[in-house]
Amino acid sequence: MDTPASSHPVITRLLTMPPVQAMQLRLAGFDADTLCLAAPLAANVNDKGCAFGGSLTSVMTLAAWALLSMRLEDAGHRADVYVQDSSVRYLAPLYGDLHARAWLEDGQTWNEVLDAFAAKGKSRARMEAEIRDPAGTLCCTFSGRFVALAPRD
Protein backbone atom coordinates (compact mmCIF):
# COMPACT_ATOMS: atom_id res chain seq x y z
CA MET A 1 0.00 0.00 0.00
CA ASP A 2 1.47 3.32 -1.07
CA THR A 3 -0.50 6.07 0.65
CA PRO A 4 0.46 9.12 2.72
CA ALA A 5 -0.04 6.91 5.79
CA SER A 6 2.56 4.47 4.41
CA SER A 7 5.25 7.10 4.83
CA HIS A 8 4.01 8.32 8.22
CA PRO A 9 6.94 8.48 10.69
CA VAL A 10 5.18 6.05 13.06
CA ILE A 11 4.76 3.46 10.28
CA THR A 12 8.37 3.97 9.18
CA ARG A 13 9.54 3.41 12.78
CA LEU A 14 7.31 0.35 13.14
CA LEU A 15 8.45 -1.31 9.94
CA THR A 16 12.15 -0.94 10.77
CA MET A 17 11.91 -2.98 14.00
CA PRO A 18 13.69 -6.35 13.43
CA PRO A 19 10.84 -8.53 14.82
CA VAL A 20 8.34 -6.65 12.64
CA GLN A 21 10.55 -7.16 9.59
CA ALA A 22 10.69 -10.90 10.31
CA MET A 23 6.88 -11.00 10.37
CA GLN A 24 6.81 -9.13 7.00
CA LEU A 25 4.25 -6.73 8.39
CA ARG A 26 2.78 -3.97 6.20
CA LEU A 27 0.23 -1.21 6.51
CA ALA A 28 -3.05 -2.37 4.95
CA GLY A 29 -5.28 0.60 5.73
CA PHE A 30 -5.69 3.72 7.83
CA ASP A 31 -8.34 6.31 8.50
CA ALA A 32 -8.91 8.57 11.47
CA ASP A 33 -10.62 5.82 13.46
CA THR A 34 -9.01 2.52 12.44
CA LEU A 35 -5.68 1.13 11.38
CA CYS A 36 -5.13 -2.18 9.62
CA LEU A 37 -1.90 -4.16 9.46
CA ALA A 38 -1.31 -7.30 7.42
CA ALA A 39 1.29 -10.05 7.34
CA PRO A 40 1.61 -13.17 5.19
CA LEU A 41 0.78 -16.51 6.74
CA ALA A 42 4.01 -17.98 5.30
CA ALA A 43 6.13 -15.79 7.63
CA ASN A 44 3.87 -16.44 10.65
CA VAL A 45 2.89 -20.10 10.40
CA ASN A 46 3.01 -22.63 13.23
CA ASP A 47 3.53 -26.40 13.21
CA LYS A 48 -0.18 -26.99 12.45
CA GLY A 49 -0.16 -24.89 9.28
CA CYS A 50 -2.18 -22.04 10.75
CA ALA A 51 -1.16 -18.63 12.08
CA PHE A 52 1.18 -18.65 15.08
CA GLY A 53 -0.57 -17.34 18.19
CA GLY A 54 2.32 -15.02 19.03
CA SER A 55 2.09 -13.45 15.58
CA LEU A 56 -1.66 -12.94 15.94
CA THR A 57 -1.16 -11.19 19.26
CA SER A 58 1.76 -9.14 17.95
CA VAL A 59 -0.06 -7.90 14.85
CA MET A 60 -3.10 -6.82 16.89
CA THR A 61 -0.94 -5.16 19.56
CA LEU A 62 1.13 -3.34 16.95
CA ALA A 63 -1.97 -2.15 15.07
CA ALA A 64 -3.37 -0.64 18.28
CA TRP A 65 0.02 0.87 19.22
CA ALA A 66 0.45 2.38 15.76
CA LEU A 67 -3.04 3.89 15.67
CA LEU A 68 -2.62 5.57 19.05
CA SER A 69 0.91 6.72 18.19
CA MET A 70 -0.22 8.18 14.86
CA ARG A 71 -3.16 10.02 16.39
CA LEU A 72 -0.91 11.57 19.05
CA GLU A 73 1.76 12.54 16.54
CA ASP A 74 -0.77 13.96 14.09
CA ALA A 75 -2.12 16.13 16.93
CA GLY A 76 1.39 17.55 17.41
CA HIS A 77 2.36 15.52 20.48
CA ARG A 78 5.68 13.75 20.97
CA ALA A 79 4.83 10.66 22.99
CA ASP A 80 6.26 7.32 23.98
CA VAL A 81 3.42 4.80 23.79
CA TYR A 82 3.51 1.57 25.79
CA VAL A 83 1.09 -1.31 26.17
CA GLN A 84 0.14 -1.42 29.86
CA ASP A 85 -1.87 -4.65 29.85
CA SER A 86 -3.85 -6.69 27.39
CA SER A 87 -6.11 -9.65 26.90
CA VAL A 88 -6.36 -11.86 23.83
CA ARG A 89 -9.02 -14.41 22.90
CA TYR A 90 -8.29 -17.05 20.28
CA LEU A 91 -11.61 -18.11 18.76
CA ALA A 92 -10.72 -20.01 15.58
CA PRO A 93 -7.53 -21.01 13.75
CA LEU A 94 -6.47 -18.76 10.89
CA TYR A 95 -5.27 -20.55 7.75
CA GLY A 96 -4.75 -17.37 5.73
CA ASP A 97 -2.83 -14.14 5.86
CA LEU A 98 -3.11 -12.04 9.00
CA HIS A 99 -5.20 -8.86 8.74
CA ALA A 100 -5.59 -6.98 12.02
CA ARG A 101 -7.91 -4.00 12.46
CA ALA A 102 -7.54 -1.75 15.54
CA TRP A 103 -9.69 1.05 16.96
CA LEU A 104 -10.30 3.06 20.12
CA GLU A 105 -12.62 1.18 22.48
CA ASP A 106 -16.23 2.38 22.59
CA GLY A 107 -16.92 4.80 25.42
CA GLN A 108 -13.80 6.88 24.79
CA THR A 109 -13.15 9.65 22.33
CA TRP A 110 -9.98 10.72 20.61
CA ASN A 111 -10.56 14.22 21.99
CA GLU A 112 -10.47 12.86 25.56
CA VAL A 113 -7.25 10.94 24.92
CA LEU A 114 -5.52 13.82 23.12
CA ASP A 115 -6.76 16.52 25.53
CA ALA A 116 -5.49 14.53 28.54
CA PHE A 117 -2.06 14.25 26.93
CA ALA A 118 -1.99 17.96 26.08
CA ALA A 119 -2.93 18.90 29.64
CA LYS A 120 -0.78 16.43 31.61
CA GLY A 121 1.89 15.05 29.28
CA LYS A 122 0.38 11.60 29.73
CA SER A 123 -2.74 9.77 28.70
CA ARG A 124 -4.32 6.33 28.72
CA ALA A 125 -6.32 4.71 25.97
CA ARG A 126 -8.23 1.45 25.80
CA MET A 127 -7.76 -0.09 22.37
CA GLU A 128 -9.47 -2.99 20.62
CA ALA A 129 -8.34 -5.11 17.67
CA GLU A 130 -9.45 -8.19 15.81
CA ILE A 131 -8.39 -10.60 13.10
CA ARG A 132 -10.89 -12.29 10.82
CA ASP A 133 -10.35 -14.97 8.20
CA PRO A 134 -11.12 -14.33 4.50
CA ALA A 135 -14.73 -15.55 5.01
CA GLY A 136 -15.24 -13.01 7.82
CA THR A 137 -15.07 -15.47 10.72
CA LEU A 138 -13.67 -13.82 13.84
CA CYS A 139 -10.41 -15.64 14.69
CA CYS A 140 -9.09 -13.59 17.61
CA THR A 141 -9.70 -10.42 19.58
CA PHE A 142 -7.45 -8.06 21.52
CA SER A 143 -8.30 -5.61 24.27
CA GLY A 144 -5.52 -3.53 25.75
CA ARG A 145 -4.72 -0.49 27.83
CA PHE A 146 -1.99 1.75 26.50
CA VAL A 147 -0.24 4.61 28.21
CA ALA A 148 1.30 7.56 26.38
CA LEU A 149 4.00 9.55 28.15
CA ALA A 150 5.93 12.63 27.17
CA PRO A 151 9.50 11.62 26.27
CA ARG A 152 12.03 11.91 29.11
CA ASP A 153 14.66 13.73 27.02
UniProtKB/TrEMBL annotation:
Annotated ranges, domain Thioesterase putative: 18-149
Protein name: YiiD C-terminal domain-containing protein
Species, as recorded: Denitratimonas tolerans
Pfam family, one: YiiD_C
